[in-house]
Amino acid sequence: MPADAPTILATSGGIKEGRRTRLSFSALTDYAVELSGVTGRSPRVCLLATALGDNPAVLHQLSEAAQERGFAVSHLSLFPMPNVDDIAEHLLAQDVVWVMGGSVAGLLAMWRLHGVDAALHDAWQAGVVMTGVSAGSICWHVGGPTDSFGPELRPVTDGLGFVPFSNGVHYDAESQRRPLLQRLVGDGTLPAGYATDDGAGVVYRGTEFVEAVAETDGAAAYFVAATDDGVVETRLDTRKL
User: Fold this and answer.
1) Which sequence positions are flagged as catalytic?
2) Cα distance between residue 35 and residue 42, in whole Å
3) Which alpha helices (H) appear in 11-115, and where do they start and end?
4) Which residues, other chains included, contact 30 with Cβ-Cβ below 8 Å and sequence gap of 6+?
5) Neighbours of 150 (CB within 10 A)
6) First-to-final CA distance of the chain
C-alpha cells in the first residue's frame, strides 16, 4: 500500500555503523518505512548509491544493512549500464527509495542522463516514499551547499525541486554548512529552506513541510528565510523518534 500522499523524509541520518555488519539502518529510515504504510509483508526498499558511483562495496554494505532490518531490498545502479530493464517500473514497485550520500552534483547528472529524475517523480507522486542522507536529502530540493566540487563548499542550484525549498545537511557538524546556506538564502541564490543537524530529518507531504524528527538526542531542524531585517534561522520543534 503506498503512502496516502507524496512523501519525502529528507535527513542527515538514517544510517550508522553496524554491530555485526559494516552499516546499519537507524530510526529515521525505519520512520520512512512507517510513512509508506506497508503492513503484513516485508517493505520493498530500493537503494541508490549513484552519488558514490554505484560503488559495489557500498551497495553490498547497504544491502546487508537492509537485510538485517528485514527489508525486501533491491538496488538501482547506472554504472556501467542500468541494472534493470525498466527503471520507472522498478521504482514504482517499491515502498521506499533510499538514496546514499556523496556527490549530489554527480547524482543529478547521472539521474537526468538515464531518466531516473522523471521516474522518481512518478514514483513519488504514486506514494513511494523518498528518503536518504546528505546528497540523498539535498537532491529532492531546489539545492543547497555541497562539497561535490571540492573541500570549499559551493551551491548546487539544479536539484530535482520536488519541494520548492533549499536544504542544508550536517548543519551542526560541518562548519561551512550553516553560514553558506544563510548567505545563499540571503542573496537569493537559493530559496528559503530547511536544514538538519546530524541525526535529524524533515518530512514533506506533497510540497508542504509537516514535521521535523530526530533519531538522536539534541538533533534539530531549522527553517532559514530571508526577511527585510536579514536572514532569520528558526529552530523547529523536533520530535524524537
Assistant:
1) 134, 170
2) 14
3) 27-36, 56-69, 87-92, 104-114
4) 69, 241
5) 8
6) 23
| Residue range 175-193, pLDDT digits in tens | 999 999 999 999 999 999 9
For domain 7-240, the CATH superfamily is Class I glutamine amidotransferase (GATase) domain (3.40.50.880)
How far, in Å, CA of 144 to CA of 59, rounded? Answer: 25
| Dist CA 162 CA 70 (whole Å) | 29
Instruction: For the chain, give the number of residues.
Output: 241
Domain assignments of the chain as residue spans, ordered by start: 7-240
Residues 6+ apart with CB under 8 A from 197: 12, 170, 171, 172, 173, 214, 218, 219, 220, 221
Report angle CA 112, 82, 205 to the nearest 5 degrees: 50
Q: In this structure, what DSSP letter does residue 17 have?
A: E
Q: Is the pTM of this model over 0.70?
A: yes
